[in-house]
Amino acid sequence: MSLKNLFDGAVSTVTGLAPDAPSSPAALRDPVLRQIDEVEARWSSGEEGMGDGWYHQDGDYVAFTPVLANGATLTIDGQTTTFVPADKFADFLVNLRDQVTAGAFDRQIEAGLHGSANVSGLAQVAMPDRRDGSSEEVRQDQSAELSESQRDGSTGGR
Questions:
Q1: What is the average pLDDT score of the chain?
Q2: CB atoms < 10 A from the CB of 58, how many?
Q3: Phi-psi region for residue 154, left (φ > 0), alpha (ψ -120 to 50) or beta?
Q4: What is the C-alpha separation between 143 and 32, in angstroms, rounded?
Q5: How many helices and strands, by DSSP H and E, does the chain display?
Q6: Nearest 5°: phi and psi at 90?
Q7: 32-36: which pairs have CB atoms within 8 A and are 24 or more residues apart?
Q8: Which of 21, 23, 57, 112 is the most buried (most CB within 10 A)?
Q9: Closest Cα to residue 35, out of 85, 97, 78?
Q10: Is the dihedral of CA 17, 20, 31, 64 positive or negative?
Q11: What integer is the mean pLDDT of 75-98?
């Protein structure tokens, strides 16, 4: 067996073990946006948390910790967990989607997916204004708005 055959075999094996990373920022954002979709759907259906740790409601607050596929957390305002009033959570997710889509988290997403030891960032997500009504009424309104925006193909935009 020649040295070239050994080298080609090794390159082939390594290439097969390391999947190609998406090349565009939009491709890197897609899994995060899909996860936000899942959080919105679960939240609007009344689930108080997700097994993967993205959110957990405790009383009037939701602990929100966005996590990449490889376990690296995204930071919002320098924090890995953001505490959001439950009656603002769905609107917060809309604002988060807008920031992810605008590229505010691109450096964190790329660094997190490529194993950087320092993934923290200062991307910010605006806390939405308080809505009138009980938490349950607000959640129902937000669910209706989400359903309507998904039918229309828009992101909501509160």
A1: 76
A2: 11
A3: beta
A4: 20
A5: 5, 3
A6: -65, -40
A7: 32/66, 32/68, 32/74, 32/100, 32/105, 32/109, 33/97, 33/100, 33/101, 35/66, 36/93, 36/96, 36/97, 36/100
A8: 112
A9: 97
A10: positive
A11: 91
Burial 87-120 (b: 16+ CB within 10 A, else e): bbbbbbbbbbbbebeeebbbebbbbbbeeeeebe
Quote the pTM value: 0.65
- pLDDT on residue 70: 80
Residue with structure tokens 């359903």?
Answer: 147
pLDDT per position as a tens digit, 101-141: 999 998 888 887 766 545 556 666 767 777 776 666 776 77
CA–CA separation, 74 and 105 (whole Å): 8
What pLDDT band is residue 67 in, cutting at 50, 70 and 90?
confident
pLDDT at 28 over 70: yes
- Residue 57 one-letter amino acid: Q
pLDDT at 95 over 60: yes
Q: Name 57's bridge partners.
A: 62
Contact 113, 18 (CB under 8 A): no
